[in-house]
Amino acid sequence: MKSKVKTHKCKACKAGLKQGYCQNETCVYSSWPQTVQVEDLYHLSYAELETKYSVRKFHWEVVTEIVDDILSMPSRNVALPETGSFLDVVNNTAKTLGLTPSPAEAIMAARIFIEKTQQKV
Ligand SMILES: [Zn+2]
């Protein structure tokens, strides 16, 4: 399995990045990729940003809700999916919750899910 280790730091607050998003939740870059210019973050609406950069605002609350739901079901931790199926678990859970995560949010949820599962071993 390929593991992408990102050593970059947020260009606004210098905090570490997770999947390209700033880990500092009070930072504007926790919801937007680093490719977005900081001036635009303050001058454009979310819709304008999404159009200009072809990105979606990153919703951490969606990720958290999905991960919390998965982890609240012990049976899902026991039956660990094959590699690649973590995303299926995430997507199925999202559907159950009535959420529609972006691909980036789904991947983030899967990553956190994997991390948390491994910590329990
Ligand atoms: Zn930051």
Biggest sheet: strand arrangement: 1-2
Give me the count of strands. Answer: 2
Radius of gyration equals 15 Å
Morphology call? globular
Strand content: under 5%
Q: Averaging pLDDT over every residue, what do you get?
A: 85
Give helix % range. 40-55%
Bound ligands:
zinc ion
Number of separate helices: 6
Can you write the helix and strand succession as a string?
EEHHHHHH
Main sheet? 2 strands, antiparallel
Structural class, by secondary structure, is mainly alpha
Which stretches are low in confidence, meaning pLDDT under 50 for 5 or more residues running? 1-6
Number of domains: 2
**What distance separates the N and C termini?**
19 Å
Please give the structural blueprint:
Elements: E1 17-18, E2 21-22, H1 38-43, H2 46-53, H3 60-71, H4 74-78, H5 86-97, H6 103-120
Antiparallel strand pairs: 1-2
The chain binds zinc ion.
Provide structural commentary.
With 121 residues, the protein is mainly alpha-helical. Helix 3 (60-71) packs parallel to helix 6 and helix 5 (86-97) packs across helix 6 (103-120). It has helices at residues 38-43, 46-53, 60-71, 74-78, 86-97, 103-120; strands at residues 17-18, 21-22. It folds into two domains: 1-57, no CATH class; 60-120. It contains six helices and two strands, in the order ββαααααα. A two-stranded antiparallel ribbon has the order 1-2. It binds zinc ion.
